[in-house]
Amino acid sequence: MRILITNDDGINAPGLAVLQAIAHEIAGPNGEVWTVAPAFEQSGVAHMISYTHPTMIAKLGQRRFAAEGSPADCVLAGLYDVMEGAPPDLVLSGVNRGNNSAENIVYSGTVGGAMEAALQHLPAIALSQFMGPANMKLDNPFEAAAVHGARIIRDLLDKAIWDNADYRLFYNVNFPAVAANDVKGVKVAKQGYRHGAGFGLEPQISPSGRKFLWVKGGKQDLTSGPDTDGEANLQGYISVTPLRADMTAHDTLADLQSRLNREGHG
């Protein structure tokens, strides 16, 4: 198996090293793992692509490249430059430092990389490691992902739905903030929403007198509701959430059409 990996924390991030080990285990002794990751941290860039300026890419080692761009840029670089003519069988993005559950999915560059792979009609999985008091002081805070990651990916490859829709399915996996032995299991969960955890701004005045705005995130240990990804993570479970890039609110289509067809609207 040929696997392309990327992330949003940058080419030197410890989570990428964890993912590389996972990918080598999945690929097997005769497989290949190719890395194309951002030269610098790209957290929070979502599915951004560098449409208005070029992306510089540098070879750092065998099958290892750094690109001055977003995770989605890195996937494109992998497909159309680094691995041109021989696309990967699987794209993995992560392992992100911090959770990409609930509303974080919308902002996540990790998820954005997997989304671009899915839009390129390739199987893709995003992986993130929740951080908290129970794992931050471990020798390896990514222990849950490192121990359980390969098994989860194998299960998804063997048992999950992999369709060929225009907006094809891809998967978002979040590991809980616990030691590997304390992981309770796996839950398939919908995307949740943490009330009060949204982003805000904090203004600061620099020594030169100029005003700067810092983006601030909210608390991550808030409930995201029953049967959701964030709640599963807080309970010690690995969450698996099927995603599509299709952003249509399908549940409102018929009602909206009915409202617009009422008298006075044609």
From TrEMBL:
Residues 3-195 form the Survival protein SurE-like phosphatase/nucleotidase domain. The keyword Chloroplast does not apply. Its EC number is 3.1.3.5. Binds 1 divalent metal cation per subunit. It is found in: Cytoplasm. It comes from the Bacteria. InterPro entries: SurE (IPR030048), SurE-like_Pase/nucleotidase (IPR002828), SurE-like_sf (IPR036523). Pfam families: SurE. GO terms for cellular component: cytoplasm. Keywords: Cytoplasm, Hydrolase, Metal-binding, Nucleotide-binding. It catalyses: a ribonucleoside 5'-phosphate + H2O = a ribonucleoside + phosphate. Gene3D superfamilies: Survival protein SurE-like phosphatase/nucleotidase (3.40.1210.10). A divalent metal cation binds at residues 8-9, 43, 96. Its cofactor is a divalent metal cation. Its main location: cytoplasm. The keyword Cytoplasm applies. GO terms for molecular function: 3'-nucleotidase activity; 5'-nucleotidase activity; exopolyphosphatase activity; metal ion binding; nucleotide binding. Nucleotidase that shows phosphatase activity on nucleoside 5'-monophosphates. HAMAP family: SurE. Belongs to the SurE nucleotidase family. This is 5'-nucleotidase SurE. The gene is surE.
